[in-house]
Write a structure and sequence with these properties.
Beta Polymerase, domain 2, 7-stranded mixed sheet, about 325 residues, about 55% helix, Methane Monooxygenase Hydroxylase, Chain G, domain 1, alpha+beta, 9 helices
Length: about 325
Amino acid sequence: MITVQVLTPEKTIRQGTVDDVEKREMTWLDITKPAKQELEALSKITDISVSDFEESLHPNQRPELRDTAHYSMITLRFTHLKNGDMVTKPVIVLVSKERKDFITLHRHDSLAIKRIMNYPDQKKVALFEQGATELLFALISEKNLSYYTVLSDIEKRIAGLESLIFQPNGDKGEGVMREILKTKKTLIYFYQSLTGNREILSSIEQAFASFLDNKKVPRFRLLASDLTQLIELVSTERDILTTTMEVHLSTVSNALNETMKKVTSWGALILVPSLIAGIYGMNFKHLPWAEDPLGFPILLVFMTVSMIFLLKYFKKKDWI
């Protein structure tokens, strides 16, 4: 799907077409889930091959920055909701100060891009007036904000797991472990994406992108600082999650020990009666009370007393 927004001389934003990209008006071209024909049309406008676009849109593509004939081509990883889980996907951003073009290309919906698209007209006009580099700054800022939002949700998820672990009758089985591992995997992917994005911002700050407005480049240091804080936050959440997993395993182990202790205690209750029954089951002629009419009742009383004694002892020790 193609969306084109153009800044008019009357200081308004109008919906445009792909042809507006070749004009010298400030234009934002956004392409979501691009078809091959759309990639070919974009290739003719930007002089960038379709294969380069497809390579940069690969799900495993790391963030990168390179200059082409007319654009600075920046690939960043943005958050994306997939089947209820947050993942990161590549987004291509093409920026040209001279051509007044700002082009975004992505195979999945982007929360950051949607938020900028939904800016009030007055705010959006002010953004467009400052040029493509300012749009890039706003986009990365919104991207960082989306990471903060997702990490806040992950923090709540971890808190929920901690509460579940310490509940007396909480789920101590595979469900908790599966959720812990899934969350930890998400944090690992986030860490990789954030460190890659930070490298790109460092390159922008060092003026490696030829088609950006050099006067605005120093401001990107603020975004790099945000990314550093996000990386530290991810590392902290990973440490908390590792501790949570260790506590979970310890809780499971303690619960197993408690179960084994109870089973062993119940088994010990019948130890003395089983021993007596085993002795009198031997094939010997001379056994105490074997010929006595009261022998059997006496042995039953002794067995019962021993079981009652052990039962009270184990209850006192809280083993049963």
